[in-house]
């Protein structure tokens, strides 16, 4: 209403409120359209207002107003999430924190940074002290650090350092939606109520993450004619601590042919590909070992060209799906954990049942210290029924799926402590204003009724 708009202007200044209709629409969306299921469900969701606070005080002021007026709030970083996490289900105000983007402190082994800072900018900053990030998503150029903590899982670096839940967040500061909006400092086990909880328990304003001494990363593409060989080779590299690495990816043929910028280096249609980022000093040995597994080095980018132009991580994690979509818009994807010792068998079964309807993409990663071949398989979409038939089959054979076709927290997997998150929400957001509709209603209701 015009009344509310007037109050918003009063609280935060008109310069912090988005007034262009198309921009409001744009900032109400994320990459939900990766999923044909979510694409249908969320297409028309839109915020009534978008506020982009230019300071911590302005952020606090808009939150205080929304509490007073009982208006729904959906936090937003860069909006690169894939599950509609940042989409307002019930209108209200989208609060875009991307202008809270200052580094607070770079220490030895840690950095404290405001939530809205882009991960790539953060990386540049910490490299000034010869340090680097542990883990980051393949969207690091755009994505914010707060959005990663609140809505992501893992990425480049996870093969060595694990996911967000594995010590890669040291503490966060959050603003709560209590009568008096207040700040909390969260660390230790309490972080589990905030990591990947879509901002349902609080607005993250500051993040402290561990950082490590900088390495010299070389990017390497190795081609294989057998899927078994590429899996065995990459498992060996991923498993053995003697190799210093931050990315070990496998894509099945013909996925490499979807990578248009690599057209010159990828010639054989039926070749599978390993995409690896490894310490420069390990490169010669890596190439020798690859030969033992019948692998052929087809491209090396020396350490001096790291972060210059397109990198191989632009073809990994969920970027793989992006290249497939550019090739044919019917591709979509799943997320799953294969079991380390049954991965060949599980892949064989899925191939037999679904043929080329499913193409394998594996990210080797550590989860609570355990090495896991994590799948981001491409699925040629036919219908929602068929998609869930495929998901059911994956689960049936123990290749457990984290469903990326739902915006509901917990329904997507990741073993979240949902009851605890719901309880924390009751404390921090008693009017249930934060990211409405994302926490399954039975959880919200149960805790409210108690
Ligand atoms: P947003 O999308 O803006 O927000 C994510 C969630 O967090 C939303 O629920 C939002 O409401 C909430 N949120 C945002 N900021 C805050 C805050 N300050 N306080 C509280 N809540 C907040 N993800 C991975 O984990 N690893 C990958 O490798 C990866 N690769 C991807 C590749 C592609 C091509 C795409 C499209 C997505 C990929 N993603 C990946 C998903 C996503 O890009 C990342 O998780 C990213 O870190 C999200 O950051 P963002 O700033 O865009 O967050």
UniProtKB/TrEMBL annotation:
<keyword id="KW-0560">Oxidoreductase</keyword>
<dbReference type="Pfam" id="PF01565">
    <property type="entry name" value="FAD_binding_4"/>
</dbReference>
<dbReference type="InterPro" id="IPR016169">
    <property type="entry name" value="FAD-bd_PCMH_sub2"/>
</dbReference>
<feature type="domain" description="FAD-binding PCMH-type">
    <location>
        <begin position="42"/>
        <end position="214"/>
    </location>
</feature>
<protein>
    <submittedName>
        <fullName>FAD-binding oxidoreductase</fullName>
    </submittedName>
</protein>
<keyword id="KW-0285">Flavoprotein</keyword>
<dbReference type="InterPro" id="IPR006094">
    <property type="entry name" value="Oxid_FAD_bind_N"/>
</dbReference>
<dbReference type="InterPro" id="IPR016166">
    <property type="entry name" value="FAD-bd_PCMH"/>
</dbReference>
<dbReference type="InterPro" id="IPR036318">
    <property type="entry name" value="FAD-bd_PCMH-like_sf"/>
</dbReference>
